[in-house]
Specification:
By secondary structure, the protein is mainly alpha-helical. The chain contains 5 helices and 2 strands; from the N terminus they run H-H-H-E-H-H-E.
Length: 125
């Protein structure tokens, strides 16, 4: 176990919630994005980052943007309302980290190099 266990757990939670929705059942792209979140969770458990294949940059960016949006809309307000300062810090870190990765991945996708991109996670909160 490493210091990113909380991030892995949050990624898996969001993927699981989404996979159980009607949208995921009907949309193969949504299922692919949730699979991507699970792969990032696996990587974060064993290292300080993850690698994204050149042909998966936009899909991964979209998955991480959705992840961040879900946390901001649904999870962060609950942590704040309950005064859970540790949870709030972890959620804010996860949102910021996901959005930084989105920016990196989309910038690299725009270059159309087709090369994999390594995303290094910042130090945990």
């Amino acid at each position: 176990m490493n210091d990113y266990t909380f991030f892995s757990a949050i990624l898996r939670f969001v993927a699981g919630k989404t996979e159980n929705s009607d949208q995921a059942t009907a949309d193969p792209r949504t299922r692919a994005m949730m699979s991507t979140l699970r792969a990032i969770a696996d990587a974060a458990e064993t290292s300080d980052g993850f690698e994204v294949a050149g042909d998966a940059l936009e899909l991964t960016a979209r998955a991480l943007a959705g992840f961040a949006g879900f946390l901001q809309k649904s999870i962060l307000p609950e942590a704040v309302a309950h005064g859970n300062q540790t949870g709030e810090r972890q959620i804010r870190w996860s949102v910021d980290t996901a959005m930084d990765a989105v920016n990196t991945l989309l910038a690299r996708a725009a270059l159309q190099e087709g090369q994999p991109v390594r995303v290094t996670l910042p130090p945990p909160p």
